[in-house]
Amino acid sequence: QVQLVESGGGLVQAGGSLRLSCAASGRTFSTYVMGWFRQATGQEREFVAAFRRTDGAIRYADLVKGRFTISRKYTKNMVYLQMNSMNPENTAVYYCAATDRVVMDWRKFPNYNYWGQGTQATVSS
Quick check: 49 and 70 in contact, CB under 8 A? Predict the structure, then answer.
């Protein structure tokens, strides 16, 4: 079992930045991919970014490339999402997610079996 807790959400003006944190506990060594999804009001949950633990390979959604950065600290079992140049379209609940299954498509949320409670990020114009 893996437990994930997000933090760092809040209110930011357009063009500003937020840094989200995800604290992982439990059998973190068993995870294959860890990353971030987001879900705006009335929208489906969508992929943001993720990394593979074995080699550190990273994948980003096209929409956030160049603006968002995912990173991790293994010693603290922490995963981060640095969000720069934010705009109102980035307003959403951001979820930390992980899977202990070997999956080919990191973008599909059904492939993840561990989820945090989410943290709200709101971007004002």
Answer: yes
Cβ atoms of residues 49 and 35 within 8 Å:
yes
The pLDDT tens digits for 63-89 are 898 999 999 987 778 999 999 999 999
Distance CA 33, CA 52 (A): 4
Contact 82, 72 (CB under 8 A): no
Q: Burial letters for 62-97: b for 16+ Cβ neighbours within 10 Å, e otherwise? A: eebeeebbbebeeeebebbbebeebeeebbbbbbbb
Q: For residue 58, count other CB atoms closer than 10 A to its CB.
A: 15
**How far is it, in rounded angstroms, from Cα 97 to Cα 79?**
10
